[in-house]
Amino acid sequence: MAVYTEVADDEMAAFVARYGIGELLAAKGIAEGVENSNYLLHTKQGVYILTLYEKRVKAEDLPFFVALMQHLADRGLNCPVPVRDSRGEALSRLAGRPAAIVTFLDGLSVKRPSAVHCAEVGRSLALLHQAGEGFGMERVNALSVPGWRPLAEQAGADADKVSPGLAKRVMAEIERHERSWPQGLPSGVIHADLFPNNVFFIGDKLSGLIDFYFACTDAFAYDLAICLNSWCFEADASFNLTKGQAMLAGYESVRPLIQAEVEALPALCRGSALRFLLTRLVDWLNVPPGALVKPHDPLEYDRKLAFHQRVGDARDYGLKR
Ligand SMILES: Nc1ncnc2c1ncn2[C@@H]1O[C@H](COP(=O)(O)OP(=O)(O)OP(=O)(O)O)[C@@H](O)[C@H]1O
Ligand SMILES: N[C@@H](CCO)C(=O)O
Fold first, then answer.
1. Aminoglycoside phosphotransferase domain location, by residue (predicted)?
2. What is the pTM assigned to this prediction?
3. Which atom of ligand 1 is nearest to 37's Cα?
4. Ligand 2 atom with minimal separation from the 279 CA
5. Which ipTM value was assigned to this complex?
6. In this predicted model, what pLDDT tens digit does every residue of 231-256 receive, in sequence order?
7. Which ligand approaches the C-alpha of residue 69 most closely?
8. Could you tell me if residue 308 is left (phi over 0), alpha (psi between -120 and 50 degrees) or otherwise beta?
């Protein structure tokens, strides 16, 4: 359960009272998630989410995330909207952490996505990329190529305790991407973590997107690569071509890829598998004592990486050209 920071009841009630959302009736820690502490708030007026931002979120990035959610919501994307307190501020502090309250979205995330879900995600990802146009702020992707070597160094030789030879494998991948990472692709606001747990559905229809705390300015096709990794593999690490086709077709129904993006897709998929392997590896080796959190398996992404290493071109992901 991802609650790193506990909040005393009276402190929580006093905090919520500042937002004009009605008296607090109940606050429950949310089991899902690994990054931040999340509470479900029931007030006399409705249901909200309170997030306390933990280690990986830098306080100076919070104005970007808050303004982005507002920008996307204003353009019709169904994402959480930050709630402002009586002074008009969306960002505050609680129990020693930066904190914000956002609106609650209806819907359920899917554990085993189908091709229909993948098509919906592809389409919504392209809509997100379009809705981000005109957003006035920028944020460098701290978890792109320059961020990978420091993560590998943080894991160090302990990586081999997770899987023999992993430290060397990871370093070879990093060196490859440092030499030849695709440049100059169409860029803008990307979500950068649109995994199944961050997408809600009502029936087969996508109903909302959450968790914008890795959002940044980067190549749109990199965001698509992250989704191909997180939605289109089966539990045995085989890539499901039908799901890949559905996701790519869904994306291109809104925003067709240019040739440079098609050519870059294998490298972007390979790099994004490495990015999640690295962050998971560091988290796996550094679970905070007493934290109620189950870290994600880094080796899931080692297996996905092995698939990308064998890929020829974007047709291997289901692109029909
Ligand atoms: N706006 C929202 N509406 C409804 N539920 C939400 C909302 N925000 C968060 N949740 C719930 O809280 C859970 C954790 O949220 P979130 O994914 O943002 O946490 P996190 O720690 O950043 O997780 P992650 O591991 O995906 O980075 C979600 O899976 C969802 O159940
Ligand atoms: N989506 C990430 C966790 C959030 O950073 C993962 O599954 O590794």
1. 28-257
2. 0.96
3. 21
4. 8
5. 0.95
6. 999 999 999 999 999 999 999 999 99
7. 1
8. alpha
Residue 134 falls inside a structural domain: yes
What is the pLDDT confidence band of residue 307, given thresholds at 50, 70 and 90? very high
Reduced to 3 states (helix: H, G, I; strand: E, B; else coil), residue 187 is: strand
Mean pLDDT of the chain: 96
Pocket of ligand 1 contains residue 181 by CB under 6 Å: no
Instruction: Starting at the earlier edge strand, list the strands of the sheet with 92-94.
Output: 24-29, 37-43, 47-52, 97-103, 92-94
* Bridge partners, residue 108, by sequence: 201
pLDDT of residue 1: 45
CA torsion 311-316-319-321 (nearest 10°) is 90
Ligand that comes closest to the CA of residue 275: 2
**Which residue's CA is the nearest one to ligand 1's atom 27?**
35
Residue 214 Cα: closest atom of ligand 1: 27
Expressed as residue numbers, the domain containing 72 is 9-103
* 81 within domain boundaries: yes
Mutational pocket test of ligand 2: of 141, 280, 302, the residue with most ligand atoms within 8 Å of the beta carbon = 280
Write the pLDDT tens digit of every residue in 55-91: 889 999 999 999 999 999 999 999 999 999 999 999 9
Has residue 149 been placed in a domain?
Answer: yes
> pLDDT digit string (tens) for 152-168?
999 999 999 999 999 99
Ligand positioned closest to the Cα atom of 32 = 1
What gap in Å lies between CA 121 and CA 130, rounded to an integer? 14
- Provide the number of structural domains found in the chain: 2
Burial class (CB in 10 A: 0-12, 13-18, 19+), 38: buried
Q: Are residues 225 and 189 in the same domain?
A: yes
CATH assignment at residue 225: 3.90.1200.10
User: Ligand 2: distance of its center to the CA of 88 in Å?
Assistant: 32
Q: Is residue 108 part of a domain?
A: no
**Is the C-beta atom of 35 inside 6 A of ligand 2?**
yes
